[in-house]
Structure formats: C-alpha cells, structure tokens
Amino acid sequence: MEGIIRRIPLAVTALIFLSALIFASFAQAGLFTKKTSIMGTDLEMTVSASEASSADAAFSSVEEEMARIEALMSEWMDGTPVSEVNRSAGIGPVAVPDEVFKIITDAVLISEASGGAFDVTWASMRGLWLFTPGNERLPSKDEVDGRLGLVDYRNIVLDPAKKTVYLKMRGMAIGLGAIAKGYAVDRAMKQIASSGIKDAIVKAGGDMRVQGRGPDGGSWKIGIRDPRDKDRLIATLEVSNVSISTSGDYERSFIKDGVLYHHIMDPKTGYPARGTRSVTILGPDTETTDALSTAVFVLGPEAGMGLIKSLKGVEALIVDSNGRIHSSPGISLGATVAPERP
Ligand code: ADP
Ligand code: MG
User: Fold this and answer.
1) CA 281, CA 299: separation in Å to the nearest integer?
2) Which among 81, 113, 86, 83 is positioned nearest to 98, based on CA atoms?
3) How far apart are CA 189 and CA 195, in angstroms?
4) CB of residue 116 inside a 6 A radius of ligand 1
5) Plot region of 134 (φ>0 → left; ψ -120 to 50 → alpha; else → beta)
6) What is the fold, at CATH topology level, of the domain defined by 81-167?
7) What number of CA atoms fall less than 13 Å from residue 65's CA on the CB side?
8) Beta carbons within 10 angstroms of residue 340's beta carbon
9) Closest Cα to atom 5, ligand 1: which residue?
10) How far is the CA of 320 from the centre of ligand 1 (A)?
11) Atom 14, ligand 1: which residue's CA is nearest?
C-alpha cells in the first residue's frame, strides 16, 4: 500500500494534477497523496500528516467507506438497494437503508428546485446512450422518444415512514451518478477528520472537498480548468472548508458528424444539455455541489445562475457554450476568481 503513497518532496513546488479537471499546488513537506480508482472514477486524496502510516490509515478508511457507499448506491452492481428499486419498478415499493432513502429524497428536492433539470430517473434511458471509449452509441430519435415518458422524478414514490422507494412505471430506473459521488466525498472527509487529520483534499472525479489549511498555512489554491483546454486555467480559487464540484461536457463524450454528445442529459429532451460547457459550484457540502453542478449545467447559464442566486451559501462559475465565463456575485467564500483571459 505504502508504495503508492507519495510524499511530496521538501522545497519542491509540485503541481499536483487532481485529474485533468482541477489541480492544487503544494510546496511543503508532510503532505501525502494517493491516487486510486473507485465508484467508476479517479479518487485522489491529499492529507497533511506527521507520518506516512497515519496518512495510509486515513486513505484506507476512505477507500473502505467509498466502497461501502458504492455497494449501497450503485445502479450498475447487482443486489444494491438502488438496483433492487430499479428491478421493482412498476411492481412494488422497496425498503432501503436510511442513507439511501435520504440521498433519493435529497435528489427529489434538487429536482423540484431545478424544475426537473436534475432528475435521477434519467437512468430510464440507460443503454441508449453509451460513452465508453470504443463503444459509443448515439440512439435514434425514436428510441429516445420511446423512453422519454419514463423520465420524470414525480413518478418516484417515497414513503418516509417505511423508508420505501417505488418507481411507478415498468422500465423506469434511477441512477445516482450525479449526487452519490459527492455524498461519498463528504463521508470520505469525515473519515479523514475522525482519524485526526485536519488539512486535506479529497477529490473523486469532478467532486472535491477542501478542508483546513493549505501548504503555505493559508487557503488551498484550486485551479479550474478551461473546458476546451485541459492545460489552461480559467480561474484560481483560494478556498478552505468548502466543497467544489465541476460538471463538464468534455468528461464522458464523443463527437459524431461534428456534433459533441456528452453524458449530462436534459430530462426534457433526452439529449445532452446544450448551452453550457462547464459548471463549477462551491458550497457547504459535496452532495449538494455535485447535484447542483449537474442541475445548473442542464438549466444553462441564465436559469442556472438564477437558481444559484436563490440559494444560500452556494456560488457558481459557468462557462457557456460560447466560452463566456459567468460567476455569481459572492463567489468569495474566501475565494478569489482570476480569469486568465477574458
Ligand atoms: P460526473 O459524473 O462527471 O461528476 P456529473 O456530476 O455532472 O458528472 O454527473 C453526470 C452523471 O449524472 C451522468 O453520467 C449520469 O450518470 C447522471 N445524469 C446525467 N444527466 C442527469 C440529469 N439531468 N439529472 C441527474 N443525473 C444526471
Ligand atoms: Mg454532479
């Protein structure tokens, strides 16, 4: 295990690419980092610790916790509570663990707040769109229209007393891909905190939590990448004790006949949402920022910014389909936004 944990050398300012999406810069000893893969995405953890063994223990507890959450919330693995809910669509309610019930309830709240732009029943389209490299699939309009009637969060029936979830129609399915990873990052950071570590970053794909002090004793510096150039930054945020999620049209995508198709779906059309290239949300917890980055992406810059302004403690940085950057007024949260080019 220890072999994969890298101690960042003293006196070296290392630019650690926390995936192609976001990076942080470190210039201090005592920082340990580990990259692995979990929940179908890259997991990158950086902690400030007195020795490698305590970093290692924290990393192991994170991996265990994320595997536990995946076993609860994956719609791809057989036998998870979410798979059982999907299997029983149109048949009957399924009792699920409290944690799963809470995430699905939160998902429905975000659906309501976003007027259905965020909708976990997008998964009713599963199999039609494929973004796996080498195995991409562009469905026909008929296929999409044939399934679209199954996409509607209002057909999720929740019973808070019995903790059951029922999908009203046969063929309906939910997928928590735009919210569960953020929740897992929150849980991961709790594991790190309970192992006594105060300064840390956990990043799973586009979802990250930044905690405590950065390498120079102040904020952490987080770069937000240009959605059209992974080597260029559009902003640098100086932040701490905050969650940051980015949804981008470059993540899982393919180009067919000159058109970019990507994995963030507009539930109203069944096609990838247009109008946005990337959305970065800052907020109090990663479950929220994860779901909101997807919601705002689908809503587009105007309506998306409207939603962000209506919520407390949440900020957004949106790159629209023309490459223009929109940022919410209080993007402070201790953050400075410095676009490098207009
Ligand atoms: P990433 O998974 O790259 O972090 P997001 O957080 O934006 O990106 O989540 C996108 C994923 O969410 C998709 O891969 C799909 O699983 C699911 N999804 C796609 N469209 C929607 C939508 N409108 N509402 C809720 N979930 C969605
Ligand atoms: Mg998201």
Assistant:
1) 14
2) 81
3) 10
4) no
5) left
6) T-fold (1.10.3980)
7) 23
8) 11
9) 178
10) 18
11) 263
DSSP-assigned beta bridge partners for residue 159 = 164
Interacting residues of 30 by C-beta distance below 8 A, sequence separation 6+: 48, 49, 50
Instruction: Determine if ligand 1 sits within 6 Å of the CB of residue 120.
Output: yes
b/e per residue, 233-257, with b = 16+ CB within 10 A? Answer: bbbbbbbbebbbbbbbbbbbbbeee
Ligand 2 centroid distance, CA of 292 (Å): 6
Segments of the chain scoring below 50 in pLDDT:
1-29, 333-342
Check residue 106 and give its pLDDT: 98
- The CB of 247 under 6 Å from ligand 1? The reply is yes
Give per-residue pLDDT as tens, 281-332: 999 999 999 999 999 999 999 999 999 999 999 999 999 999 999 999 877 5
In the chain, which residues fall in CATH 1.10.3980.10? 81-167
Is any atom of ligand 1 closer than 6 Å to the C-beta of 267?
yes
Where, residue-wise, is CATH 3.10.520.10 in the chain? Answer: 12-65+179-184+195-327
Residue 245 Cα to ligand 2 midpoint, Å, equals 7
248 ligand 1 Cβ < 6 A: no
Supply the pLDDT for residue 217. 83
Nearest Cα to Cα of residue 140 among 153, 125, 151, 152? 125
Specify the residue with its C-alpha closest to ligand 1, atom 15.
Answer: 177
Query: How far is the centre of ligand 1, averaged over its atoms, from the C-alpha of 158 (Å)?
Result: 22
The DSSP call for residue 126 is B
150 Cα to the center of ligand 1, angstroms: 17
What's the burial of 303, exposed, middle or buried (CB within 10 Å: 0-12/13-18/19+)? middle
| Amino acid occupying residue 43 | L
Contacts of 266 (CB under 8 A, 6+ apart): 117, 272, 273, 274, 298
CATH topology of domain 12-65+179-184+195-327: T-fold (3.10.520)
